[in-house]
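Budget justification note: compute hours in this period were largely spent on complex prediction jobs such as the one shown. Inputs:
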Amino acid sequence: AQSVTQLDSQVPVFEEAPVELRCNYSSSVSVYLFWYVQYPNQGLQLLLKYLSGSTLVKGINGFEAEFNKSQTSFHLRKPSVHISDTAEYFCAVSERNGANNLFFGTGTRLTVIP
Amino acid sequence: DTAVSQTPKYLVTQMGNDKSIKCEQNLGHDTMYWYKQDSKKFLKIMFSYNNKELIINETVPNRFSPKSPDKAHLNLHINSLELGDSAVYFCASSQVVGQGTGANVLTFGAGSRLTVL
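Corresponding output:
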């Protein structure tokens, strides 16, 4: 079984500052990793995904994440945040050859302060 | 055009009532899901259908019954509503984007907020 831990439930950051949202996972099999973003009163949308290849993946809105197998982490970063980045961010994992089921972390609320 | 649409967006009802939430996707995806998001924003899968066939049925009370009349629709019916059913219910659909069955990218609907009084 997989599990996903998002260590920070809330992250406040000033506009134009860098941010890192942490995600760790545990699994006994190979996994795929995802970050989804949920803006207020909306559904989730995909920010980026790691399936294979380069461990540094780039997503929409200037976000990127790095897969670190030895540390079982998939932290999300952005060098300079905007007010519009205020949202809930979810890390998720799925088994490479398992049922098509995503396991989500508990989310990190990013608040960008003007 | 909305890719995954759910209705209603808001639903307020009394305990003991029966209600349904409808979901439709126009993406041509084969797989559809229902997720429940509780008040602490935790997302948990409830059901997954692939080509109208039930694939995932997590530990959900049997008061919840999904129905998939075709692969573009997945409805959720809830009998005898309880206070603890209050949550936001998200429908999603997916396609496999890489090797392995787990390489699914989900497209979510906007959610249906259910409030049970």
